[in-house]
């Protein structure tokens, strides 16, 4: 097993990886920017090195600086976490060329699946259902229009090289296509260095379902069940849960098999997530493969008891999976809420500042993944997520009640947060029933943000049997 690993990330995910490494007897090295010199991941680390200024391009995306530290400190591998360099094929290649191990898929796999248009073609060849759309990138708005006429509007313009909602535009009226095509192209070029755009049919009234995958070098592949990530704003997840309440056992098994087929077609190794859109008729379509660990991975860990980061490290070290698909046991229900420093009523404007008070919830079956402490500075340079609260219950009702209680206990002072919005969301009727869709939250956002709903929950909603 590795003796020392460099964690090329920050915040809660750096701490989460560090904890597993310590349990495995692996020493860790962390890097940080000048803005993060007092960050918790720096304070907790055995070795920590400043690699640049506050902007990510000068620090957390500074590949040469990160590799220099890894080599100078005797690290054998680099764990990229999520975001930042985690899906950069050039970084994975550079790590390998430097004689280190990249804890993730091979560079060529990241490259192949990172190009969304190419990944779509790969899935079609493998027999995995994909959303109707273009065969690869389109050159201009006129070509996108012709495809739109063929598959029907509304359509989505999507960046071939990216994700996270950037370089994406929903086209409901073809009169808007040219303007929005240029916008999407420019945003994709700015965010990902490539302005390539492809077209997909926009599936309305859909759920966003993903399957957690583990694949070793020996050809072993398993899935660790599904997650429902449909409670979103601006195509960003806010609440995730596992398992999805609307999947039948038959559909779950079929989608799980397709997720494994998708991963095998890419000669994949490591942890990854296969994402699908599920329509109201029970038809599902491949969206993408995330070639990294996900923010919401703790929900899967809660119901399976499997440490996904530990498995990532073992796989990268060449160790085969210790279990087969039929040996994985799923227990109960898990929900995760992302606590962000933002102002939901002002279009989710980020809210940097100093945390003056921070009290975490606790109790049975509660997990807190956080890098926040009283006195810490929330800077404007990085993602606004402060903390993840993850709960487990013997069933979904237990998990919902436990999460409500946790949000009632949580105290965050010094910055504005989305806690009130999350709390009200847990009383929304579609959330209670579990039949919410990717559009539900934004369609009801004004009501959820209303003063009355934020200050009190209707007795009828409060007493609905879960």
Molecular structure report:
The protein has 3 domains: 4-103, Rossmann fold; 132-201, 2-Layer Sandwich (Dna Ligase, domain 1); 207-462, 2-Layer Sandwich (D-amino Acid Aminotransferase, Chain A, domain 1). Helix content is 35%, strand content 25%. It is built from 18 helices and 22 strands. It has helices spanning 11-23, 40-44, 63-72, 89-97, 107-114, 116-126, 141-151, 177-192, 249-265, 297-304, 308-316, 396-409, 419-425, 429-433, 440-443, 445-449, 451-455, 459-462, and strands at 4-7, 27-33, 47-52, 77-79, 101-102, 155-159, 169-171, 197-201, 207-215, 221-233, 236-242, 270-278, 284-290, 333-340, 342-343, 349-350, 353-354, 357-359, 366-370, 377-378, 385-393, 411-413. The strands form 6 sheets. Strands 13-12-9-10-11-14-21-19 form an 8-stranded antiparallel β-sheet. A 5-stranded parallel β-sheet has the order 3-2-1-4-5, sandwiched between helices. The protein is globular. The chain starts with a strand and ends with a helix. The mean pLDDT is 93.
């Amino acid at each position: 097993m590795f003796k020392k690993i460099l964690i090329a990330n920050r915040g809660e995910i750096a701490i989460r990886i560090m904890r597993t490494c310590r349990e495995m007897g692996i020493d860790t090295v962390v890097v940080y920017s000048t803005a993060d010199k007092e960050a918790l991941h720096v304070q907790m680390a055995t070795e920590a090195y400043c690699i640049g200024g506050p902007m990510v391009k000068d620090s957390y995306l500074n590949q040469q600086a990160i590799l220099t530290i890894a080599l100078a400190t005797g690290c054998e591998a680099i764990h990229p976490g999520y975001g930042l360099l985690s899906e950069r094929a050039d970084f994975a290649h550079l790590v390998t060329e430097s004689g280190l191990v990249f804890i993730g898929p091979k560079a060529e796999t990241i490259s192949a699946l990172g190009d969304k248009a190419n990944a779509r073609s790969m899935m079609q060849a493998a027999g995995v259902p994909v959303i109707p759309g273009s065969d690869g990138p389109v050159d201009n708005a006129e070509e996108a229009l012709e495809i739109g006429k063929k598959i029907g509007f509304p359509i989505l313009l999507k960046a071939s090289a990216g994700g996270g909602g950037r370089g994406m535009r929903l086209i409901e009226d073809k009169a808007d296509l040219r303007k929005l095509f240029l916008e999407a192209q420019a945003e994709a070029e700015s965010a990902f260095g490539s302005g390539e755009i492809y077209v997909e049919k926009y599936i309305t009234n859909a759920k966003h379902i993903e399957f957690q995958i583990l694949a070793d070098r020996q050809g072993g592949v398993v899935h660790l069940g599904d997650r429902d990530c449909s409670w979103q704003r601006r195509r960003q997840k806010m609440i995730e849960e596992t398992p999805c309440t609307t999947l039948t056992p038959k559909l779950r098994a079929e989608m799980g098999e397709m997720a494994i087929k998708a991963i095998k077609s890419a000669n994949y190794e490591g942890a990854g997530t296969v994402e699908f859109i599920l329509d109201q008729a029970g038809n599902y379509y491949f969206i993408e493969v995330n070639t990294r660990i996900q923010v919401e991975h703790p929900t899967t860990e809660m119901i399976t008891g499997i440490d996904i980061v530990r498995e990532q490290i073992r796989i990268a070290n060449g160790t085969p999976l210790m279990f087969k698909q039929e040996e994985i046991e799923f227990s109960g229900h898990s929900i995760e809420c992302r606590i962000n420093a933002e102002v939901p009523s002002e279009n989710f404007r980020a809210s940097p500042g100093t945390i003056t008070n921070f009290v975490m919830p606790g109790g049975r079956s509660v997990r807190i993944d956080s890098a926040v402490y009283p006195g810490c500075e929330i800077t404007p340079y990085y993602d606004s997520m402060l903390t993840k609260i993850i709960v487990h219950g013997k069933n979904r009702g237990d998990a919902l009640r436990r999460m409500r209680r946790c949000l009632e206990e949580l105290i965050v002072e010094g910055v504005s947060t989305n806690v009130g919005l999350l709390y009200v969301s847990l009383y929304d009727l579609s959330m209670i029933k579990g039949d919410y869709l990717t559009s539900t939250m934004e369609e009801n956002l004004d009501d959820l943000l209303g003063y009355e709903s934020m200050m009190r929950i209707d007795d009828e909603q409060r007493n609905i049997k879960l």
